[in-house]
Amino acid sequence: MDKDLKTKTPEELTEIVVEYGGKQYVAKYVFTYLHQHNINDINLMTTLSKDMRKKFIDDGYYITQLKIEDKLSDPDGTVKYLFETPDGNKIESVLLDENGRKTICVSTQVGCRLGCKFCATGALGFVRNLTAGEIIDEVSAICVDSGCKVNNVVYMGMGEPLENYDNTLRAVRIFASDIGKQIGFRRQTISTVGIPEGIKKLADEDIFPRLAVSLHAADENVRKEIVPAANKYSLKELSTAMKYYNEKTGRRITIEYCMIDGINDSFELARKLIQFARPLKAGINLIEYNPHPGSDFQPANRDQIKTFKDMLMQAGFETIIRFRRGQSIKAACGQLGADRLTKKEQ
Hints:
10-stranded mixed beta sheet; TIM Barrel; two-stranded antiparallel ribbon; 2 domains; 12 helices; alpha/beta
């Protein structure tokens, strides 16, 4: 049994508190201590009697706490955090400020097994899944350090969220609680490289966070070149899963498309993207590629990106260009873990 109190829902905490002789309403205060006041020490939960706190600790209950090992700031306001997990692994998270709205980009794994060619995290390899408590504490630790109230959480950091499905969904539910951080489901976005069974499973849930699919090419051969997972999951399988999600949830999907010079930025591939997206309820984000050590790719020309966007807009797709942010601190899309790649090469 997982004894990390940070991973418990209000209902689970109620069961635990009652089992230890406490009143049901006390569990609500415990949850609030954990997720509004960001308490990381059971002894500071003074709503619990001293005896109950001691019993919790004696029986192995604990509260996950990440250690901030480093913090880097970019002139554009982006802040990158390097965390150390309790077992000594390293993960990165990013705080973004968009006109006063705070978004935290969280990691769901230590490393990643999928190895996308444009992504620094994939080059690090996979170590393990993060626990729900560790995912949650990325947000809690940043809130404490920055003093900010977070508006949005995006699961777009290190790792593939749908390969750590249960822990990611548990974090989503806990963030959304009205006695916790109150980050509603529609203000949380799960980003996947495109795992069909995971997308369908998400569609069958009773909650609907936003979904983003990292497509990056609507041509089978080009996608296989830059997204190795495409060798396992075809575009047809991915399209079927995305249609299922649309139909089951009624929600729009965001298609993410990283613009790489000479690889996926041609007008022919723009037309293939239009053809792929036509049956879907979807918007499109064009992401300027962010270089990192170990990759020879270069970002597409900005004029090319703008023309690519115009083609999509003319075809009727809402399209946003996301130019590089956090570049100087390697906090941009696809750059998390890049500092450690540099150290590896040295």
